[in-house]
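User: Write out your own:

AI:
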Amino acid sequence: MISTSFLRWKLLLLLSFFAIIPGFSQIYHQKPITALVGALDEEIELLRQSLQKPKTKIVHGVPFYYGKIGRHRVVIVKTGIGKVNATMTTAFLLQKFRPKRVIFTGIAGGLHPDLSPGDIVIGKQTLQYDYGQVSNDSVFTRNTRNPINRELNPLFFPADSLLLLSAKSAVQTTDFKIVANQTKPPYIIIGTIVTGDLFVTSETKVKELRSKFNADATEMEGAAVAQLCWQQQVPCLIIRSMSDKADSKAKESIDNFKKTAAYNSAHLLINILMKLPD
């Protein structure tokens, strides 16, 4: 008969074994700092202007700007365009600064028919639409896999609930700019943002993304950042202000509305900060 003490010793040994094997544990030691991230200079311009006693740290060639906005310690970084650049920069960010939360701000193409330039989508969930499998007659979007614990990630990465609630509250107190061709304040929805390494300028692609994923906006970084944060258990939120409708006129629209759209998204982000606990 096996003694209780022997079984206890075997269990402790087994748990210790799993704890030291990569893939069976992932521990992220966060610090009291919030990361504010954008892909373009215009997307982080207002954030940098709002930074109190700013300092700069270069990490692997990437400049990170840190200080305080209001009572919050923050670090601001520009990732560059695309999923690889966004993931690389966010990995540097998490490793060096260990933020307690990550908020991505910037512009996007509107997919929802009611969205116009200047309107905003607060992402309740994000998805990488170009990750999957291609056959002769179809494209199948698949779940990514977490290489740390070897489990499938969710197809849609959900936003952090506290950040989402804070964003909903901040909308009520944010004074948005009105874009040149509009007469009313931005229309703001809580919706789905899809990410791919494609600048969408196609009415056909708009219909596809809308019908397959019920997506409201498309861009090139958000879901990649959300995946990394999910795998490291870091709260994350993606905010996007529409610069265009992702149609054949998108390039011209971006040139006209990018600056105001980027400002509105960043302005909302700053007000979200004011709603968050220290």
